[in-house]
Amino acid sequence: MRDLFEPDMIDLSNITCHSGGAQGSDTYWENIGETFGVKTKAYSYKTSYHVSKNKVEISDSDFEEGVDQINKANKVLGRFGIQKYMNLLARNWSQVKYSHQIFAIGYIVDPGKKSPKGYYSKSKVQTVDGGTGYAVQMGINNKKDIYVFDQNSNFWYRWSYSTMSYIKMNDTPKITTQDFAGIGTREITQNGIDAIKNVYMKTFEN
After folding, report:
1. Three-state DSSP state, 105
2. Predicted structure pTM score
3. pLDDT, tens only, 52-75
């Protein structure tokens, strides 16, 4: 039986990483990817402090879509006080919209458990901590192929649409689409950096 996300052949010389240009995981996806010839689109919405050389200002219509998508994601995440961060959160929609796969570095939080930042998850399903969790949840809502590297356990996990949970992987995933999102926490650790390197190495190995 054919896997829902079974890859077709892709052009390794023409891969685009859709990201956010933030310090931490975004920057590592962008900079390490560049050494492999991967182009990056680092999305922004009216943020003057965005310093990526690959900055792409999103359209007002994409931002408005993003606001709607964030609100839908928050029905699952159940978090409070997000409106003051909407400029940053809603631009994350472009990372998801223009990608087929999403690779995120961060922390998976079980329902009712405390996140690394000290907040208890009010969701009924496993989620990803912080702002990264919104991009990941928007990806799930739109049936994208989702991979999360959990910096606590030091493993990659793939979101299962059959069990509605994260399944631990025994190996490093690889990029199998021309357009993917490379995102994650600002508080990236060395194992998170290594995880990004390993995705690129596996993708481009002979």
Report:
1. strand
2. 0.93
3. 899 999 999 999 999 999 999 999
